[in-house]
Amino acid sequence: MIRLKTEHGFTLVEVLTVMVIIAILSAIATPAFFSWLPNLRLRQASRGFFLDMQEAKSLAIKNNTPIGITVTTVSCPGLPNIPSPGGSYTLFTDDGAGGGAAGDGIRAPGEAVIRTTQMPTDVALCNGAAQMASTSFLPTGSPIAFGTVTLNNSQANTSTITLSLSGNIRQN
Predict the structure, then answer these.
(1) pLDDT per residue as tens, the chain (172 positions)
(2) Are the C-beta atoms of residues 110 and 92 closer than 8 Å to each other?
(3) Which is nearest to 128 in space by CA: 148, 143, 144, 145?
(4) C-alpha closest to that of 10 among 1, 22, 21, 19
């Protein structure tokens, strides 16, 4: 009876061929990934700001108290150079605690902070003439100030959040 020798595994040539193919695919994919990342961060930051604006409006109605939002912008000398940190925004209970005026959109030292959010790497709230600095949602859901907040990224792309006089929030 003849025994056939059965071998299991891969040869060195097969393993090296697969490694070369993986290296070539990685070399092609890496630049695409790094150019895609700033746009992903911009979309995530814009979506987060939009959702926080909606949450502020909902909390104002639910709790029957004004909820404020202040936007801290940064100077962007020339896009695509984005400073780090790239600004922030703060949600707070605008109830006038600590000597402030209720529903004025300005955070007084005694007013409770709900959340402060910093912009991620490659994203900034650049200051400009059209930027909304602060607002408050009244218990009716209407804002005391309306306007636009623009987020910029390191690839000179922008995303805007617009708050209308009626309290509608739109993301572009």
Answers:
(1) 666 667 788 899 999 999 999 999 888 877 777 778 889 999 999 999 999 999 999 999 999 999 999 999 888 877 667 777 889 999 999 999 988 899 899 999 999 999 999 999 889 988 765 578 899 999 999 999 999 998 988 888 889 999 999 999 999 8
(2) no
(3) 148
(4) 19
Distance from C-alpha of 96 to C-alpha of 8, rounded to nearest angstrom: 76
* 161 strand-pairing partners: 149, 171
- Are 43 and 159 in contact, with CB atoms under 8 Å apart? yes
Give CA 100 to chain center in angstroms.
Answer: 29
User: Which residues pair with residue 143 across a beta bridge?
Assistant: 137
Token reading at 148: 């636009």
Residue whose entry in the numeric block shows the structure tokens 């949602």: 137
Which of left, alpha, beta for 128 (phi over 0: left; psi -120 to 50: alpha)? beta
Q: Which residue ranges form the domains of the chain, and what is each CATH number?
A: 40-171 (3.55.40.10)
- pTM score: 0.78
| Distance linking the first and last C-alpha atoms of the chain | 77
Q: Identify residue 85 by its one-letter amino acid code.
A: P
Structure tokens at 101: 């005026």
d(CA 74, CA 99): 28
| Helices of type H across the chain | 12-63
